[in-house]
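Hi Q.,

Before the meeting this afternoon, I wanted you to have the HC0 prediction in hand. No need to reply - just skim if you have a minute. The sequence and ligand are here:
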Amino acid sequence: YCNVIIDNKEITVPEGTTILEAAKKININIPTLCYHPDLSIKANCRICSVEVKGKNKLVAACSTPIWDGAKIVTNSKLVRDMQKGVLELILANHPQDCLRCIRNGKCELQKLCEIFHISKSNLEDEVDALEVDSSSPSIVRDHRKCIKCNRCLEVCQESILSHAHRSIHYSITPAFERKLMDTLCVFCGQCSSVCPVGAIYEKDDTQKVWDAIHNKDKHVIVQIAPAVRVSIGDEFGMDAGKKVTGKLVAALRRIGFDKVFDTDFAADLTIMEESSELLYRIENGKTLPMITSCSPGWINFIEGNFEHLLKYLSTCKSPQQMFGAISKTYYPKIMNIDPSSIFTVSIMPCTAKKYEATRKEMNSSGFRDIDVVLTTREIARMIKSSCIDFEGIQEEEFDTPLGISTGAGVIFGATGGVMEAALRSVYEIATGMALNNLEFIGVRGLEGIKEASININGNTIKVAVAHGLDNAKKILEMIDKGKCDYTFIEIMCCPGGCIGGGGQPIGTTLEIKDKRIQSIYKVDEEMPIRKSHKNPAVLKLYEDFLGKPLGNLSHKLLHTNYNP
Ligand code: HC0
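Predicted structure with the ligand bound:
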């Protein structure tokens, strides 16, 4: 242990504790910028410098382990001059157009400037005239705003970003300064959720939605992804993980959507198709293992890097796209509406979903499955700009029938959820017996690769769940080497699954992800129906329209194939 004094306060901390961590324990806030609790320590911005008392020496608090007998001062003149100097240097190379920036009010640099009363750099303006990269439908890179903290580079699952040039021309960029669309970027958006400023952000599609809502000829419907209901509360200062489904439904109606539906309905539909596909493959000796296909970042990854393994993917479209296809066919039929007037919006925790919706093959109904995808952050902006008191708004129910769902649908939002939902149905469909214990604990939690097995009609089916592309790669390499004995595999691109998607509120950490996961399982527990194949609205959809899972119409509308 080390006995130390920080700003005249004594504290004892275990050896190895950094100065930043020790200060936090006694509620002393040291400013940080490149530091992020879930990423490695870089110490390259130096804004967290503190003074070693009596030595006239500054050290970086984020990276320096405290030592026994240390006397640290966090607010001396030396420290304050250093902090202001760092901020002025950054500002000298940063556009000062905060009102026009997407991160206005949520920018860590802006916050620090406010704290230190810095409104303008006294240094000469050196902002580079770099072009904004808006080549992808998911993410925008505005290099001029980059403060070179390296968070994006570190969180990038595909190592798309790297260092280039030296001195004042130093930059973080894809190799050869390519545009994102010309790289193997999977558009997961993790970079955008850790960027402390507005240098990487979700492509804002909110105006398209406002235009549709204000167009009297459009019938505008919206679906809410499983993971958004336990995350959007963060945007309104509510407790992390708080379930706010009813408030979100109410807020979307206030904004002007004609109907508010649930992606969980389509998740149940996906389970019907995916379970049937799995059983068909098992019973007919077709390609196994079968791998889930609902995470678009994951699909981009396998298409870009392992095209020879595409045959292992389920042919099911994701729930987002299944919802879209149904919203342009079955829904207008039962509502007696012209399908060309329907405008379908998705609220997703994910930036890659924007890309998925633009894929050329996602229009088998004759219309685009999905017209616009908004991330959690974008819909929060729409709610705020509608002056809605989100925390105070009275909860409302989803519209029917595309708002009816089960507990199996909602757990899609956490890693392992698709697998658990599938197993609940596969077992009952294949054996005709009731499954008593619905909770497959083995596939829950944040471990990188999880395994479980289930006995179906005397055969043991081994399954696996992976999240994050490093883990996905391990699974693919096992398959490639013929060393994979799994029958069914769930893969989600983002660490933690969709609750940790790249379009989720800024400030998402591991701790917050964990709270969202717990909340999602609680929602499942409280649902009256917890198995997808018992969803009455899905059963009626088959009875009145689709026929049966894997039938001709299902194939046309709900399945797809993948491109290398
Ligand atoms: Fe997900 Fe989904 S669970 S990918 O994470 O499967 O984005 O929340 O909406 O489509 O349902 C995201 C979340 C979805 C889809 C569903 C799946």
